[in-house]
Amino acid sequence: MCFVNVVYLFYMWGARDSAVCYPPPKAERHVTKYRNGAISPNLLYNNDFAQNWVAWRHYGRYRLSHFSNGVTRATNKQHPIHMLAIYDGDFINATPDLPWNGVLQPVDLRDHTSFMGSGYYELRFDVDYINLSLKGNLNIKMRAVTKDFTPMDAHTTDNVFSVPNTDGSGNQLMNPKKGEVLSDAVSHFLREHQKDLHVLTSRASLVMYSKKPLNYVTCYIYPEVPGIVLISNTSLTVRHVDYKEDPSVKVNMQRFEKDDSAKLSEKIGDEFKLRDLMWEKRRVQPFYRQSTRHFNKKTDTTITAQLDVSRFSRLIELCKQWDGPMSVVIYIKEQKDIRDLNTLLEDRANMAALENVDIHLAHKRELNENLYPINELRNIAIELSKTEYIFTIDVDFVVSNGLNQHIKSHLQSTNYPVDVFFVVPAFELDGYSMENTKIFPKDKRELVSLLKQDKARQILAASFEEAHKPTDINKWIRAESTYEAIYSEHWEPFGVVHRSAIKYDERFAGYGWDKVSHIYYLHKLSFQFLVLPEAYTIHMEHATSTSWANRTTADKEWIFSSWFESITEFNFKYFPQYFNPIDMKNVATMNHDHNNNHWFDHKV
Fold first, then answer.
1. Which domain holds residue 193?
2. pLDDT digit string (tens) for 445-473?
3. Contact criterion met (CB below 8 Å) for 276 and 150
4. Chosen domain end from 550, 566, 591
5. Strand partners, 161
6. pLDDT tens, 310-363?
7. Are residues 87 and 45 part of one domain?
8. Between vectors from CA 57 to CA 581 and to CA 268, what angle results, nearest 5°?
9. Together in a domain, 123 and 192
10. Strand 301-308 versus strand 326-332 pairing type
11. What is the pLDDT of residues 403-443, one digit of tens each?
């Protein structure tokens, strides 16, 4: 396993900017408007990390450590030093899968913004830091959610400030050696510079504006490359102003007149870019080709799927195994796709296979759509389905014989529940592809035989077992009736659910966390997961053009921030009573939160 090559060290001196704003629960919300340029108090909770992990969340995959305590010899006063560390042994030479890492905190702004007749809300995010060895960008970011839940434009970068250090202008003060115990090296540095930490401290600031009142904003701090950064203090303030400042950027200016160690960097951004009236709406052509059969709205289940024209043959293979209704969205990137689709639909064999299928077209947006909008397409397919129960699946999976009838019997025996997700176990089979479809097992008994011969296995068993582990394949092998599966992180089963269930989060595009987030929501909303004993689906091999390994660092960072923003918004909508820095982790546990509730404490 790779470990991220970044160390966060958090410390504090004195009581500078130490006030926090964590209001107690109120019967009525009182909104402070901050007119005439009046500035709010610091709205970040535990802004100087004096309370260790409290309120801050880990923006990455790896374990954090917290270092604290120390005595200032000059004044003999307690001088708390707070340090978060992410490293492992030989981390200097590691090549991590996810090179960035950091922290984030959602901040409730309901009491600090309201509808105003004119002007803007100005948000200012300040980060004080000492750059010990970072030679790449230090990024600070704000992502906002308005009170009408207008989403941010997925492609904007105006809300990110990257302070460059690649050329050494960030003034690295340490050069850790291979094999050196980093905690010891940093402790030595802090002790050596007790009297002059303030003149070594740089500041990065990001200013953004909003015409609309905001529900909350999430503040991020993260570098992208190996290095050590000490972060002493953070601040988020809001005020109402009549005019915006002109956008500008200044980086690594000298902060203090008599010492050039500390730098001052500031980005004055513009308004948060939202998907408002300027956002291009997607063109959808429903029922481009309609099914020629009729089904029972209550007892039948509709397979909902999405694809582009290049995977049409896989759709046909799925249709051969499924005798129920299907609602399929085809993603159209250019006019040639429609011509190719029409040619395929004219084929008699295809026409026969598609007699159960409603085909809808969703056209690519002309501007800024680089990733396949997988969850939006899923939601379109669900919206245009005709039955009460839906089975969302990818067309790279083919389902077991008689699955429609199997599902019918279990829906009837459970009295058609609306809060149950019926899991269809997923497998991979050696050699199963479009060129070799005859090896598909005809029933569970044949599949179990292949499993025992190690010719088949749970999907992603080798690369990411957690994705389907809760399904418990060993239990499924023995099962003669449904059994309950217990949710755990990263689970992404396929299955059947009532169409009224929460929809897929459309901020997810491309590959990563698109299904994980949906199952997480169902779990938090107290859905029960029942595994169907005779059901299965098998993945058809194909080129992994969208694999995680082919993603850029920017792609991966976007997926992670989308995941965090998604469950933050989910928490806000469904558990508003817990939307505060203390309680929020209990509802919206993110990756490794449960491991990092107590970052390991060390004495400096």
1. 6-21+31-277
2. 999 999 999 999 999 888 888 889 999 99
3. yes
4. 550
5. 140
6. 999 999 999 999 999 999 999 999 999 999 999 999 999 999 999 999 999 999
7. yes
8. 85
9. yes
10. parallel
11. 999 999 999 999 999 999 999 999 999 999 899 999 999 99
